Model the fold of this input.
Amino acid sequence: MNRWLYTFGCAPDSGAPVDRIPDHKAAAALLGGKGAGLVEMARLGIPVPPGFTLTTEVCRHRLEHGADPAGLADELRAAVAAVGAATGTTFGDAARPLLVSVRSGAPVSMPGMMDTVLNLGLNPTTVAGLAARTGDARFAWDCYRRFLTMYAEVVLGVGAGDDDHDEGVFERLLTDRKYAARVQKDSDLDAAQLEALCADYHQAIRAATGAPFPDDVWAQLDGAIAAVFRSWDNPRADAYRRMHGISAAMGTGVTVQAMVFGNLGDTSATGVAFTRDPASGEKALYGEFLVNAQGEDVVAGVRTPLPIAAMAQDFPEAFAGLNEVCARLEGHHKDMQDLEFTVQDRKLWMLQSRAGKRTGKAMVKIAVDQVHEGLIDRATAILRIEPGKLDELLHPTLDAAHRPPALTKGLPASPGAAIGTLVFSAPEADAAAAKGEHVLLCRTETSPEDIVGMKAAVGILTARGGMTSHAAVVARGMGKPCITGATGLRVEAARGQLTVLGKGGAPDQVFKRGDVLTIDGSTGEVFAGRAPLAPAALSPELEELMAWVDTTRTLKIRTNADTATDARTARKFGAEGIGLCRTEHMFFATDRILAVREMIVASDVAGRKAALAKILPMQQADFTEIFAAMDGLPVTIRLLDPPLHEFLPHTAAEIAGVAADLGTTPEVIAAKVGALTESNPMLGHRGCRLAITFPEIYETQAIAIARAAIAAQRAGARVLPEIMIPLVMVPGELARLRAEVAAVVDRELAAAGATIPYTIGTMIELPRACLVADQIAAHADFFSFGTNDLTQTTLGLSRDDVASFLPTYLETDLVPADPFASLDTAGVGQLVAMGVERGRRTKPGLKIGVCGEHGGDPASILAFHRYGLDYVSCSPFRVPIARVAAARAALAGDRS
Amino acid sequence: MNRWLYTFGCAPDSGAPVDRIPDHKAAAALLGGKGAGLVEMARLGIPVPPGFTLTTEVCRHRLEHGADPAGLADELRAAVAAVGAATGTTFGDAARPLLVSVRSGAPVSMPGMMDTVLNLGLNPTTVAGLAARTGDARFAWDCYRRFLTMYAEVVLGVGAGDDDHDEGVFERLLTDRKYAARVQKDSDLDAAQLEALCADYHQAIRAATGAPFPDDVWAQLDGAIAAVFRSWDNPRADAYRRMHGISAAMGTGVTVQAMVFGNLGDTSATGVAFTRDPASGEKALYGEFLVNAQGEDVVAGVRTPLPIAAMAQDFPEAFAGLNEVCARLEGHHKDMQDLEFTVQDRKLWMLQSRAGKRTGKAMVKIAVDQVHEGLIDRATAILRIEPGKLDELLHPTLDAAHRPPALTKGLPASPGAAIGTLVFSAPEADAAAAKGEHVLLCRTETSPEDIVGMKAAVGILTARGGMTSHAAVVARGMGKPCITGATGLRVEAARGQLTVLGKGGAPDQVFKRGDVLTIDGSTGEVFAGRAPLAPAALSPELEELMAWVDTTRTLKIRTNADTATDARTARKFGAEGIGLCRTEHMFFATDRILAVREMIVASDVAGRKAALAKILPMQQADFTEIFAAMDGLPVTIRLLDPPLHEFLPHTAAEIAGVAADLGTTPEVIAAKVGALTESNPMLGHRGCRLAITFPEIYETQAIAIARAAIAAQRAGARVLPEIMIPLVMVPGELARLRAEVAAVVDRELAAAGATIPYTIGTMIELPRACLVADQIAAHADFFSFGTNDLTQTTLGLSRDDVASFLPTYLETDLVPADPFASLDTAGVGQLVAMGVERGRRTKPGLKIGVCGEHGGDPASILAFHRYGLDYVSCSPFRVPIARVAAARAALAGDRS
Done:
């Protein structure tokens, strides 16, 4: 029989025995991260308030059938009773009422994305009981007020502020009461005033919903559970899942847990802690707490909390307990943990333990440190690295030698430098980023609704909130520089204005929407204008990790580089060769485009040859420099690929200019442009088709390559040219062009008396090439998959034209990811696997790689490893990422 | 040991024993059609002059190695000696010289495409011997003159006229001699004058080549054999092979045979005969002969010969022999034969027997008649049908009821009506046809160089030549209407003028280049201007054949039809349903395009719905009519497929017009056109992608289909709608759109209280769809392969853009055929097979068809049959062709 909930901290027969769940992973899948963490803490003897977790299976059942599974209601009653028994309370009891929290918890952490209800179980009867029992009527009414607000917002959809964070109805009523009482702070309201406020709330809820607020505690519980389950599908959770590639099918768990109160006076507190610094990775307890507060106050960032170390003084026993809990949990989970706790009357209760989100920098440092501490092995360390997050470490930082004076300083919530124009709302950020602008999102505080804007921004700056506020946690997860709690700033979103406050809080300097600022998330400093940057350097931990990575991976990593500068950068980042040198990019240089255009407008072979003769020495010089830069490493040069008309001018003015340059009439150029214009250039006269009709083009390029190789060799470099023929559709193309190119190269080498080993291969970038790869392999020394074009043709999807519909496909889950960013393994991947298998059927040792965007994408690299490729090639800055991804792929292969 | 030649009619030990060759097919492959025919006639005891055939292996050896195989020279000497022994002559002997012909003969007949040398073995010595032996010095010198001409042209490349048929040097020298002798005809020159002419020829040859004409008969033989082998690769043979899909790799045989002379006076003759009428298929000896002539005179069409029946009077014994030979050969080959013969001194010699080329009409009638005669079975009859040639029978003929008076009458060389503008040369015909013009090629006579022009023309008209002249044979092979021997016409190519001669040969009426004429190849009549046509009707033989075909084939044949008219035509031709009804073609109608454009420029859903509401009743009316026309047969309707911008105007004037129509500014329309313009529309926002973003489009179409089905059903038709969703890339598209469309249709049916069985399927036209066909099948009631788009994507080849390079690919044999005309079985075919296999893995009974151009191509239909498809769909006029192709595929499947 299926059990729909699991209890912890109370009698085991009230729910399914958690011992049956094999491991943490299974527990997280079944109970969500929060539920699994609580269950495990309870088993470790760590103090957690009793409670139970409704499984993700309940969520999936609800998603599928729109109703709870049969039997859940009975289990729920029994579990609530067990929690009551464990805490000496009864749900709905007038004297000793059980109050519970109802929280979401997905298998993969989605901080702040779903809803929570606290203090559930209060009504006019139980609130009196709570007051009597705690001897604190003010506390009881404050709890009730908070409960009414949360329940109304989450379950009834009443009173939440709109997207622009206007204050909601409850906030307004609270302000009214404070005004009437002539007090400033919420905590200045007394019990009677709070009771009156609760009456206001009841009235407002009734007005909005047409029904009284439910006093029945079981109705409250059902309503809250249903609402939290529903919140799995809210728009911001959807957006978050899409951004992080989380399946919408897994569902969330819901944990119902006895309340403990951090707001029971000055002997109570609530806080958030990390077992290590999630920004820097330093091994030190990191976190914040608020005295006399409930947990949501910390995360919401409304009040700026105290640093965790201050607990040593105020709550010495609880602090010692927290340190001990941290040690036990790290020892158990062998990873940095993100903890929520409450101190109620000086007693420590743990509310959550989960693997903590961290910056790329912390991710690397923690993994490497934990290896040195003997906590994990190297393979585990490598599997802890999210390759994409390394990106953060490879971007420029503020130049320490030229640091301007800071405007102000906030909390260093997420490290890295960001330069952007100021925007003040998420929609603004999104719109500007869509136009290619770099924006800094500046908010008083952030809320989950801001997630899209944070994604669009290059950095985030908030005036309020701590190191564990929403903005901080999300920014670290995204690897974006972030400063929180910059209390020296006043943010006025409506006016589009940011004011730097001087001494005594007086306005000092004002920045407007569109002004440029620089933030340093590593120090918390904010600078006016563009501060100077320095290139990224690999940290010692990253260097060490990379050494482990390189002994683990089997895939070679090459780079896509069209210039010697790119080649050198990539080599510094560990590239083991050039996998794609596009010769056409060289054609666009202003000193060459004229010759290229001459070639194109030439009406015969002689004319083309004359123009090509001008291009030859330029190409040769480029190749010589690249060969020198890649001394000892292979360089794959792709012969001309794009349709010729790409090199021609298109507007009337451009056409006139070119005509003047070439000494002909605009009509001649316009006619040529017209003749070369194609309906679908992607599928037109390009790639090796150009060389089938105009053999002199590849002939010239082959001469340039051969002469460059000879020159570089004479200058002392070891040269390993690999000549790549693009867009092969039928084996005969490659057979013919290979023979022509080889004849030219051999002739040049013989004339120079040089011996240079070179190979000739092809790009596999059409479905047909994959299908007949066995025949193509007969003429190829190597294959390089061009998965960009292979994706375009396999999916019938022009990369330049997807903007009008691909977003809809992504939003409505028709495709799991942009197929140009991450390989479509279900479709294109089949063709790649087929091409590899068939190619090697003809030539068992055939060298096979991939060039193009997918070569730098970790998910795609895992697939390429599985297909048995020899190397991937990616842009220079992605090389370290690819190295790690390749190592993870090797480990996944070994372990799967 | 390999034998390089096979003898016939002489001692068997002089060549390889022909008995070792298993059957006619193997004989033709090894010896070519001519060689195999002679060998077989010799074995049947039919009189053939002794000779031998060099095998196609020799040709292939020469193509590969550029030289004769070792051992051939010895075999050649022995075989020549044997031929001499059999004829009582000796090669090069002064007294009894052996003269031979050297002729080509490919495994597949290529009439007139390669070269021939007659009378070889003559030199100043042997010509005297020939004169002495025949007692006819004039004959001997005439033979020598002919030999010199042919040898010089074929072997030495001297003296042939240029492409425009200027007379060559030998013709000019002949004319000079006739002028000097004051005679008109060649035959009026006496022996001495011919001897002098031969001296002129020797001088001309020496002047052109710098060397004397070879007197050594062995050198003559080697030269002639080499030249005939070489002619396998001449441009016109290449062109012919490409046109008929003949492999260039098979090579030709060369037959060397003792000469017999049809020019030995009035008791000699030469002729060509068919065992049945190759134009009509009637069972009657058909052919022509020329008294006192050599064979080339008949084929070249220089003299207009006598009908074969006239032989009964002039050569009664030979005629009786010929009739007897015909009967034996048809009994042996069980097919209509094309024969060449010579009568020398009243004795009949057969020079060639091969399957005769025939018109489509004759092809059908002969096959059906031979079944009735018990000569062949029905399967053999079906396999005799070249499906493509049926095309000739399906085009309009002259309307018998409205026949205008004829200008003149020639020989009905190839049946059918053709209307075209006059052109007078092959290049002219080719150029005009390339521009889409219908042209009639008008020549005094045609020669092999005209082949390209004949292909380009819709009909051929010659003033000279008989029913078996080059023009007649080639036109019948191509299925083009042709009139030869229209002696009432004078053709002046240089003046671009055709003169109709009146009584007494006086010019009567003149037509110029560009004037339109009509020819009736079935009667030989020529008409001025456009004569009225009547639609084609199936002949009784074709009806009978089609009945056999329909019981043989397993593939169903549907049609592509967008209108009720097309649907009715196709149904008349045997279509078993509509496989593709393109809804967008209806959108272009002038009364609708405005509403379509309104839909496109609409900026929101409401605007689109308003415009779609106008389109709805029009689509509904169309569908109703189509459903009625296809009563009881399935109708597959494809929902909107093309990119929307196709419906928008593009020039400034068009844009202004549309703006006025829609009551908006040209700027608005221009902006919309700009926004919708795509880099690669083929891979852009089209197909079901339109419905993913704008669901209201398919919704409207679904309503139109449902209401039309209800209306047609109420009017008494049995309606079987199949709704087809195009361009599915991921299974989710089909799942979603299927649900949306089904919901609409079900709602409409329910509202009308109607029950109509309908299905929803998809086009499989992207490589990815083939790869995940198993998942797509879960949501599909049927698949229809869209092999046009599947070819474009699989090959990365835009159909609209191939003109700049595909011709090079075809000319240089990189691809065997235009992949848009005939399915690329090696590439695209693999994906089709995969899609079928995977689709049926999910749904074993899944109905699968193909729509698009390949559905009417016989070679592709064979492939589709092998892949296990249920039906093909093609244009209405291709339906009978597809039916026959499907039957042939079924027989090939059974027999292979």
In short: The longest helix of chain B spans residues 605-629.
